[in-house]
Structure formats: C-alpha cells, structure tokens
Design goal:
Structural class of chain A: alpha/beta
CATH superfamily of the largest domain in chain A: HUPs
Number of helices of chain B: 6
Shape of chain A: elongated
Number of strands of chain B: 13
CATH class of the largest domain in chain A: Alpha Beta
CATH architecture of the largest domain in chain A: 3-Layer(aba) Sandwich
Oligomer: heterodimer
Radius of gyration of chain B: 21 Å
Bound molecules: flavin-adenine dinucleotide, adenosine monophosphate
Order of helices and strands of chain A: EEEHEHEHEHEEEEEEEHEHEHEHEH
Helix content of chain A: 25-40%
Shape of chain B: globular
Strand content of chain B: 25-35%
Radius of gyration of chain A: 22 Å
Strand content of chain A: 25-35%
Largest interface: A-B, 100 and 83 residues
CATH architecture of chain B: 3-Layer(aba) Sandwich
Strand order of the largest sheet of chain A: 9-8-7-10-6-1-4-5-11
Number of domains of chain B: 1
Largest sheet of chain A: 9 strands, mixed
Chain lengths: 322, 252
C-alpha cells in the first residue's frame, strides 16, 4: 500500500494558488507521519517554471496536453484520474475551490475511493486518516475515518498556514502521459475575464462594515454606509447581497469575492459561512452583530453582539460621530 | 431544450441543530427541512432559460418530509413536471443519491441538468460531479450564468477574486449552479395551493443505487464556544457605547 500524499497544485495564469501551499504544508506533515513521499500534481502549466515554487514536495508529477492549457473540468478530471490510477496515493488532497470541486468528486467516484469534503483538518490517527469537516454553514463539525488504502479529501481554503508549504527548490518532475479520453471536445474553454474595476477598492480600506442577509432590504444599506463613514471606511457584503444586486460584485468578500484583511471589520447580519470566513478571517479586529447566538461568525469574531442590528447600529454610528 | 433540476431538502440553518445520542448524526426528529438555497438558484436559472428559449423544466427530489410541498412549489413557479424518487432513504450517501438520480434520468429525455453547486449537509462530495461521472457526461461546478445559443451552452464559471471563465458545452452536461442571474422567484401560497389541486407528482423507483466507497463518521460536534468572541451584553445603548470604545481604541 502506497503511503504517499499527493496534492493537486492549482494554478491560474502561471501562478500557484495560495491554498496549494496550505495543502503542501499539511501534506508534508502527513507524509512525514506515514513515511511516504509528498508529491505535487501539476495538470497543464509550465512545469519547469511552477516546480521551482514546489520545493517542499519530494517530487512533482506533470500531465500535459493542449486541453490543459486553461482549466477545463473534463480534461483536468481525466488527467487526475490517470495520475491516481497509476500511482494510487494513500491520500489525494484537493482544495475545495472552484477547480477543486470539479476534480475531487470526479476522481473519487471514477477510482471508487472515498471522498471527504469541506475538510478543515486531516490527521493520522493510528493506522487511519481522520478528516474533520465543517458542515451546516459552519455550525457542525464531523470527524470521518478513512481506513482504506486510498482516499480523497477536499480542504477548505484558509484551514492551514500557507507559509508552512512555501519553499523554493527543484523537485524532480515526472511526466505522465495524458490519457486517451483527455479531450473529447465536449467542453471548450472560451475566455477568462477579470472583474470590473472602477468601484471602491475594499482591499485597501482600513475599516469595513460588512452587510449580510440580516440587513433584510436594499433600503437598509444606508444604515451600514453611515456606520462605515463614521469609521472612515467602506461597506462590503456577503454573497447573497451581491446576488440580490443590492451592492456591486466588487464589494463581495469571500471565496468567490475578494479576500480582505482590514484593521476593523464589523459584520451586520452575517452568519459566518465558511465561504465568507475564507475572505475575512485575517482582519485585525472583528466585531459581529447577529441575533443568532449560534451563528458561526462568533467563532471568528473578537467581540460579539446578539442584539438586533437595527437597534445597535444607529446609536453606535452616533457615538462614533461625536 | 429539456432541463432537469434535482432538488435537495436540507435542515434550516436558522433553527438550532441538535446532535443525536450516538453523537454521529443530527437528531433528525425535530429538523425542519427546506429547499437547499442553491437548488432554488438552479431552478430559477432553468426557469429563466425556459422564459427566454421555451425549454421544459423537470424537477426531481427524493421522497421524504416536505418533498411534496417543495415539488408543488417548483411547479407553481413554472416547472413543467415534478418527479418523486421513491425507495431510497435520506441517509443515502451522495454517491447512492447520484445513482438514484441517474436511474431516474434513464426515463427522461434531457439535455441539461442544473443542480445546486453544493448543500450544507454534504460531507462526501457534490452530486453534480458524481452524477455526471455516473452518466458519462461532462460537468462544470460553481456556475453563475447559463446562456443557450443554438446548440451551444455558454457557461460562466466563477473563480476567486471575481475572476470568471467562460466555457462552451454541448448537451448533455451537468452544471452546479452557484447563483441564478436573478433572485429566485417567489410562488404565492395561493398559487401553490391551486397547483396542489390541479397537478400530479410522478413517481419513479430509485432502483439499484449500489454502495460505492465511503467513510464513516466517528464523531459529530459543535464548535467550542470558549474559543470564540467576547460577548457584549446590555441594552442597545450600552452595547453601542462599549463597541464605540473598542473601535475608537483600535482607530487611535
Ligand atoms: C462556491 C461558493 C462560493 C461562495 N462564495 C461566497 C463569497 O465569496 N462570499 C460570501 O459571503 N458567501 C459566499 N458563498 C455563500 C455562502 O455559502 C453563504 O450562503 C453566505 O455567505 C451567507 O450569507 P449571509 O451570512 O449574509 O446570510 P445568512 O447565512 O442567511 O445569514 C444571515 C444572518 O443574519 C442574522 N440576522 C437576521 N436578522 C438579523 C438582525 N435583525 N440583526 C442581526 N442579525 C440578523 C441571522 O441570524 C443570520 O445568521 C459561496 C457559496 C458557494 C457554494
Ligand atoms: N438527495 C438529493 N435529491 C435531489 N438532488 C440532490 C440530492 N442531493 C444533492 N442533490 C443535488 O445536488 C446539489 C448539490 O448537493 P450536494 O451534493 O449535497 O452538495 C443539490 O443542490 C441538488 O441539486
């Protein structure tokens, strides 16, 4: 039985994703515990250039094919299935990102190995791997036992320090030939688009007031704007606010929005789903106002308030102004 | 174009979630179930495509508590057909569920499957990808816009930082929808009641759902409150005063 730990090295436009280093750091720890090798898997990309940043790995496997030049769920899944079929790693770590969500389940089901998703930790406990998952919007955790010869775990970004996985070096790169089914032409890449600019840059603010679904209506956004103004900052939001078109996409913090780390982050009616936490947990001072005492946001906030936001925000704004 | 939307019922996260005596699952006796919000978005996107191009929309869900209500609501919103999958219980793994949905699709003429991107109770993988793999067709996760142009389906896939990719697919394909182009529509209760009188829900058997590799839950737990925020109590004014003090200290 292989004891190797494989990590999918995610890259976009020639740059490795930060979460990849998180996974590599964790993977190093696990490989040292199992006695196996830590191997980074590159699908497409310039292996010679990217491998230099993967020095923490004992080796790199690379699958290359024109259909892997840009992320294509079908081609990337086929390539990763091939890697796992040939090498049968004890554990394949995949980030629970947009790309990772297309890969993890595809490999697990096609190789018929178990998958644990939304993991925030993986540890070796005796002979078994145990993965801790964050479920129910962050309200519940589970520990899953993976005692078979091979498994896949998809990990939430922000679970491990990226610094632990960053090491320059020159690991050997092994090429694996692309499988026959890599390009069926059923999915084609068309274009990659950058977000629109021109709005307030929320990553450059010292203070952010974040509105969540608890704000209830577009008409209540000015309440948050007044507080943000009193703090000398700007308003940002959780995803549903942007989906409702109450604020532009440029204001969205989280997994599919932007990552921020301001001095002050005040949340109004934000539950603290993992996809939001990913974007703001490095803020220096987090204050959460949410009527639900079990809201996961209170796990990450420094100060919490369970009063109605509509009762607290007006007097707070007034006091900050005076 | 024939569009299928598989719908999942999930615990309402606004309610308190209790863990059962074994400590490995939720206490399901008192759970109130509702449609997974991303399924609501998948349905909305399907209905938007129907409005624009004249598609047929079929919704399907596993039989269980609240299933009828959720399916009738989908019909009230504009879905054309609703199917209940029977003979599989709610404790099925994602892989078994994918097999049940795949079995149900055998009897349906479909071009496009729009699922929700994920669900809050999904520990073992997202169904869109499992389903596509089982059906032998491609998949795209984290989709926020779908456009039909003749035989081509244009798909917007979201990455971090607001970056998006546009991909092109041909039928058949499974898409995990993150957000519809519009806020999901609302069906008035009166309309749902009327549909309940007029419409019928079809039923199909789940069939052989297999087992598939799986892991076991050793422990389920709630986060340790001790590590969390320092809670500020009092009336609104006292809370505001304390918060202002903390914020001013940080600002200076
Ligand atoms: C692939 C993917 C990517 C995602 N990307 C992002 C992302 O980038 N950013 C993001 O934010 N989300 C993202 N999400 C969505 C995420 O899963 C959650 O759905 C979302 O963060 C919830 O937003 P919310 O906290 O505003 O709403 P809810 O979860 O509905 O929470 C609202 C909160 O308001 C509280 N509340 C209600 N009324 C009041 C009141 N009067 N006073 C005080 N509190 C009140 C409630 O107790 C509740 O906790 C993503 C999801 C997926 C699947
Ligand atoms: N039991 C189910 N019945 C119908 N659809 C489901 C079921 N489980 C998952 N799905 C679909 O798959 C999506 C993702 O859910 P999940 O696989 O649980 O993350 C949901 O939004 C549904 O569209």
């Amino acid at each position: 039985m292989s004891q190797d730990i494989f990590v999918v090295a995610e890259h976009l436009r020639g740059t490795l994703a930060d979460v990849t280093f998180e996974l590599l750091g964790k993977g190093r720890e696990l490989a040292d515990a199992t006695g196996g090798a830590l191997v980074a898997v590159l699908l497409g990309g310039d292996a010679a250039a990217l491998a230099g940043g993967l020095g923490i790995a004992d080796g790199v496997v690379h699958v290359d094919h024109p259909s892997l030049a840009e992320f294509n769920p079908e081609s990337a899944s086929a390539a990763l299935v091939e890697v796992v079929a040939q090498r049968s790693p004890r554990l394949l770590l995949v980030a629970n990102t947009s790309m990772g969500m297309d890969l993890a389940a595809a490999v697990a089901v096609r190789r018929d190995v178990p998958l644990v998703a939304y993991a925030t930790d993986v540890a070796l406990d005796g002979d078994a791997l145990v993965a801790t998952s964050q479920l129910y919007g962050g309200k519940i955790y589970t520990e899953s036992v993976l005692d078979g010869p091979s498994s896949v775990v998809s990990v939430l970004a922000g679970s491990f320090p990226a610094a632990a996985g960053k090491r320059d070096g020159s690991p050997t790169v092994d090429a694996i030939a692309a499988p026959a089914d890599i390009d069926t032409g059923r999915i084609e890449f068309v274009a990659l688009d950058e977000p629109e600019g021109g709005d307030v840059d929320i990553t450059a603010q010292e203070a952010l007031v974040c509105v969540g679904r608890g704000i209830q209506s577009e008409d209540n956004i000015p309440l948050a704007e007044a507080l943000a103004k009193a703090l000398g900052g700007a308003v940002c939001s959780s995803r549903p606010i942007v989906d409702s078109k109450w604020l532009p996409k440029t204001r969205q913090v989280g997994k599919s929005g932007v990552k921020v780390a301001p001095k002050i982050y005040v949340t109004l009616g934000v539950s603290g789903a993992p996809e939001h936490i990913e974007g703001m947990k490095d803020a220096e001072l987090i204050i959460a106002i949410n009527t639900d005492e079990n809201a996961p946001i209170f796990e990450y906030a420094h100060y919490g308030v369970t009063e109605d936001l509509f009762d607290v925000v007006p007097p707070l704004t007034e006091k900050l102004e005076s | 174009m024939n569009i299928v939307v598989p719908i999942k019922l999930v615990p309402d996260l606004v309610e308190e979630l209790e863990i059962d005596d074994d400590g490995t699952d939720l206490d399901r006796d008192f759970l109130s179930l509702r449609i997974n919000e991303f399924c609501d978005h998948a349905l909305e996107e399907a209905l938007q495509l129907k409005d624009a191009h004249g598609a047929t929309v079929t919704v399907l869900a596993l039989d269980g508590d609240e299933t009828d209500k959720v399916l009738y609501t989908a019909l009230a919103k504009g879905a054309d057909r609703a199917i209940k999958i029977t003979g599989i219980d709610g404790a099925a793994t994602s892989r078994q569920t994918a097999n049940a949905v795949a079995n149900a699709l055998e009897g349906i003429d479909y071009d496009l499957v729009l699922t929700g991107v994920q669900a809050a109770d999904d520990r073992d993988g997202q169904l869109p990808v499992l389903l596509a793999s089982r059906l032998g067709i491609p998949h795209v996760s984290v989709v926020s816009e779908v456009a039909i142009d003749g035989d081509a389906i244009h798909i917007k896939k979201e990455y971090a930082g607001g970056v998006t990719a546009t991909l092109r697919a041909k039928p058949r394909v499974v898409l995990g929808v993150q957000a519809a182009r519009e806020t999901p529509r609302y069906a008035p209760v009166s309309r749902v009641r009327q549909i309940m009188k007029e419409a019928e829900l079809d039923e199909v058997e789940a069939g052989d759902v297999g087992a598939g590799a799986t892991s076991s839950v050793r422990r389920m737990f709630t986060p340790d409150k001790g590590e969390g925020a320092e809670m500020i109590e009092g009336d609104a004014d006292a809370i505001a005063a304390k918060l202002a003090e903390i914020l001013n200290a940080k600002r200076s």
